[in-house]
Amino acid sequence: MKEYPHYLFKSFAKTTGLCVRLYQDRQLVYHYSPTHMLPDPVKAQLAALFSDRRRAGVLLTPLYQYYGYAQLDHDSMLVVGPTAVLKEDDVEMESLTFLLGVPTEEKELYRRSLCCAPQVSAEQLAWMLSFFITALDGQVFGVEQVHIQTDSGRPERAIAQAYTAQAFDAYEDSVLNEEVLRSYRFECLANHYITNGQVEQLHDLLEKSSATKAGAMAKDVLRQHKNMFICAAATFSRAAIGGGLEPQAAFKLSDLYIQKCELLREPSAVMTLIPEMALDFAARVRVLNYGSALDSKLFEDCALYVKQHLFSRILVKDMAERLRMSSTYLSTRFHAVTGKTLSQFILEQKINEAKQLLRYADKSMADIAMHLAFSSQSHFQNAFKKQVAMTPLEYRRQLN
To answer: What is the pLDDT of residue 295?
Structure first.
């Protein structure tokens, strides 16, 4: 069985923003994803992918997502994707989450993750595969040789054109309206990560910045980008204030970035400055809430453990065992680094997730309590009120 350098696949993933997988004898041997989509949505498409023995192709799903695939040799297949959901269809989404076994209480968050995947057309994906195979083989594999599989029966070119149009004057088109909705979800996630000082998650999300779209605010391209930047600065500063940053400090930082933006003369430079600004806000919120933890490997290890076990009961002794230290030592060091106890931190992360569920998912208090592994609904409600100063129901009503 031929071995391929994993760095090649990771580079492909980082360049395109797409999930990249290598299958050998139909077994997954490598998977790298710049995004967080668990379970892997490709599982619903594997039968169709493995049944096609063409050298390379693009598969269109019922939700108008694209997957690219390439036969590297007789038993090795490269699979990339999915791209963003381009068809808002509740029935098809329900079918997909059912096939993947996504728990009911997680379906809304999973749907948002799928919608925030990179927007890549079938034609772009075909060119990516053409380039990859050409580089691997050392001889030209033309894009016209990439097969386009459209199970929906619609011509691929018409679909690609209909769902990748970028002109400002096409906003009446229903597909572009869906792009605006995806942009809104993307911005909500970014603001959520800033408010909670989640730098790593924000960094991963910002790698897919092409998922955002803004209305026409100027005829000049440079001015359009600068106006977008100003809007982003206002949004990020308010998200940081929600995370505890002093309003004066947040607005001062926002003003400094806007001044820096106004000195730029290239639209690409303006767009590069947006993620820098967002990460800066998130990092300041983290330092505010967790002290010197920004540079602490211990904090990163604990935060990662909590993230991976957020929907189960988290015990300090289990975390300590995973990190190979005693419970007492772990608790003492974490408190010294962050100024908070581990129990406080765990509860804060669960309550932050509960806020998202209350905002975006139509779930009952009992469902949310069970999903986040609280011992009872009353335990969840009491913990939420203690931290947020209102009950979960009051919080949801305030949002509405």
So the answer is: 47
